[in-house]
Amino acid sequence: MKSVRFCNMKPGCRIFLPCKSAPFLVVPFPQASKFSVYSNFQFRTHKFHTCSSRFSGFKTIFNNAQRSCSSQNRNWGQSGILSNTHCRDSCPRSHFVIACAASNIRDLSTSVKTHVNDKNFERIYVHGGLNAKPLAVEKIDLDSNATINEDEIKSENLENDLKSERSDETKSERSDETKSVRAGKEESEVEKEAWRLLRNAIVSYCGSPVGTLAANDPNDKLPLNYDQVFIRDFVPSAFAFLLKGEGEIVRNFLLHTLQLQSWEKTVDCYSPGQGLMPASFKVRSVALDDNKFEEVLDPDFGESAIGRVAPVDSGLWWIILLRAYGKLTGDYALQERVDVQTGIKLILNLCLSDGFDMFPSLLVTDGSCMIDRRMGIHGHPLEIQALFYSALRCSREMLTLDDGSKNLVRAVSNRLSALSFHIREYYWVDLKKINEIYRYKTEEYSMEATNKFNIYPEQIPHWLMHWIPETGGYLIGNLQPAHMDFRFFTLGNLWSIVSSLGTPKQNEAILNLIEAKWVDLIGQMPLKICYPALESEEWRVITGSDPKNTPWSYHNGGSWPTLLWQFTLACMKMGRTELAKEAITLAEKRLQTDQWPEYYDTRNGKFIGKQARLYQTWSIAGYLTSKMLLDNPEMASLLFWEEDYDLLESCVCALSNSSRKKCSRRLAKSQILV
Ligand code: GLC
Fold first, then answer.
1. pTM for the whole structure
2. What percent of the chain has pLDDT over 70?
3. Sheet with strand 229-230: strands edge to edge
């Protein structure tokens, strides 16, 4: 496989997940020295004693687990602290040792009791000793220790086995169904080539498919990180495989990336939050002592990425994909697994934790999503909010309800309700709303302010006054105090339709706007990533004079064929399939001849992008997924969400009884929410 390379780094300096013996359960040693001179990006040291002191019973599990390993592991696990020397002297073997231990710990972790705090939902702690995620799910509660009940463990494991059997039955039924839906459909030559290319891009790890390369151009001598599996890029590949009835690669991907989530990496001695999913990973080959090689997974959490951008969208996409996998294969046992449930909780914990935020939208740094360079999308960009909303809806469906999760589920529902209100009310613009903003009063100090964010009407850009059609509207790109980013960002708008973040009327209006502005947003190649481009001084200040993001290129107004599948899904949901078909026909005319570029440049997407990769996998997969969605409307319907009326009902605003402060949501609800 192309992506497997010799490792030129010391094993142990980097985060590696080897496949030997236990593909989903292997945990390598971290480099013990926190301030090692080897690299800026290294493991954080975790002291084993943290586990035993905070988590009574852990030692017992650990020792049990360790006993079940082969004799070569026998001495390990007896001491309380993993020593650096141990790692350096025996790293390759240690992988195996820890693999065994971690595997049992993972199985047993389900019975660890969680404790619920009044204000916050449960906090999830991953004990760092082994850096293995599901060691414990623990509530911050200094008064009590978590306990373990072995009977519970056994009965839970038994129940899981049974669930898995039940799900296998459903799975095979579903898989037959999938095949029959596809049967009899003659693929065009373009589709055949696309499938061949997609399969060529598959990355294997220890003999199993685990993902697809971002790009697979045989003539590209400088692939940078395009020879990695990107979490977001794999999503359309995953959908293509799932719609084809091939779930294995998706299942492997979900489980392997889950393992990577458990690692902490540091950027100049600072660790991003636990629960972060990597932006991408690579399968590397590392040399063992005896002239043998071992495959390892090497994740990038943004610490190698250009600009050191945070991959906030990765975890959100992972949750969305997990749900889709269940829906399309019938294998719900996967999402019910303890380690998978813990993975979901870790992501949610990271997203729902308290900070300085004033809004229910998720606060992020610039370039934290598909647009992974500086483009003025820091703060509360729409794309992240739409993915966040979807991930919350997916989680609400997938979280196993028990005493330990009920507060988290409540927190998820409250956030969903607050977030949808916030976006529907404050991000929405159409002709009428722009006219309102145009006449806004400013400097309003009070709870009753109409212009809550103190938007100066002069901010309305000239292009928008001319551009906004009579019918239709859209959700703006970002909202901050005294700042509305009026650019149209396609992915955020499309995903708001798919997830029902927008109201039914708003969702319809977004498609009306795309239709009315077809030349600008679809042009010669669907679809513009954002409209319009930043030019001149704005480009200089906002992008930092980025030569890759020049006006109408790449992220700055370029056209990205991968967005076709999201457009198709949105159109199908809204009963506007003809729009999707038209866009697919346009793309079909060029994609194969142009060798499946990553993006197109110019106002109308006339030219292949200046620095666009060829044989870009998500361009290929996006096209295939679009075609298959059109062929299988029932399956497509499993992948979008309708309005959730329960969410509209629940207003969690605690201020509603106060005479001084009014709950603006209650007032606005009747007008905006339906
Ligand atoms: C570019 C894109 C990003 C994508 C990556 C790999 O950096 O901006 O969204 O994930 O390439 O294709």
1. 0.78
2. 68
3. 17-18, 293-300, 280-287, 229-230
Closest alpha carbon to 14 in 36, 252, 305:
36
Helix (H, G, I), strand (E, B) or coil at 470: coil
Residues 53-84 pLDDT 10s: 222 222 322 233 332 323 333 232 222 222 33
Q: Per-residue pLDDT tens for 539-552?
A: 999 999 999 999 99
Q: Determine the atom of ligand 1 nearest the C-alpha atom of 233.
A: 10
- 502-511 core/surface letters (b: 16 or more CB in 10 A; e: else): bbeebbbbbb
Separation of 370 CA from ligand 1 center, angstroms? 6
Rounded CA-CA distance 124/275 in Å is 9
Q: What is the pLDDT of residue 626?
A: 98
Residue (of 602, 236, 224, 548) closest to 373 by Cα position = 548
Q: 290: buried, middle or exposed (CB in 10 Å: 19+, 13-18, 0-12)? A: exposed
Q: Is 621 in the pocket of ligand 1 (CB under 6 A)?
A: no
SS3 631: helix
Cis peptide bond prior to 198, omega within 30° of 0: no
Q: What is the pLDDT of residue 666?
A: 53
Helix (H) or strand (E) holding 432: helix 431-438
CA distance 514 to 583: 11
Nearest-atom index, ligand 1, CA of 617? 12
Listed in sequence order, the DSSP H helices in 56-211 are 58-67, 84-108, 150-182, 189-200
Across all residues in the chain, what is the average pLDDT?
Answer: 77
What residues have CB less than 8 Å from 501, skipping those under 6 apart?
A: 385, 386, 389, 390, 419, 420, 423, 424, 475, 495
Does residue 230 line the site of ligand 1, with CB under 6 A? yes
Indicate if the pLDDT at residue 103 is higher than 80. no
pLDDT value at position 289?
Answer: 84
Q: Is the pLDDT of residue 213 over 50?
A: yes
- Residue-wise pLDDT for 621-637, tens only, equals 999 999 999 999 999 99
**Distance linking the first and last C-alpha atoms of the chain:** 51
Q: Does the C-beta of 232 come closer than 6 Å to ligand 1?
A: yes
pLDDT category at 255 given cuts 50, 70, 90 is very high
Q: Could you give the maximum distance between any two Cα atoms of the chain, in Å?
A: 78
**Ligand 1 in reach of 488 Cβ (< 6 A):** no
CA-to-CA separations, 330 to 168, 460, 582, 624, in angstroms, rounded: 8, 48, 32, 22
Amino acid of residue 667: L
What gap in Å lies between CA 562 and CA 214, rounded to an integer?
12
372 touches ligand 1 (CB under 6 Å) = yes
Q: What is the pLDDT of residue 262?
A: 64
Instruction: Please work out whether the CB of residue 14 comes within 6 Å of at least one atom of ligand 1.
Output: no
pLDDT of residue 50: 25
Amino acid at 159: E
- Whether 264 lines ligand 1, by a CB cut-off of 6 Å, is no
Question: Contact 195/624 with Cβ under 8 angstroms?
Answer: yes
SS in 3 state form for 35-94? CCCCCCCCECCCCHHHHHHHCCCHHHHHHHHHHCCCHHHCCCCCCCCCCHHHHHHHHHHH
- Kindly give the number of the ligand 1 atom that is closest to the alpha carbon of 228: 6
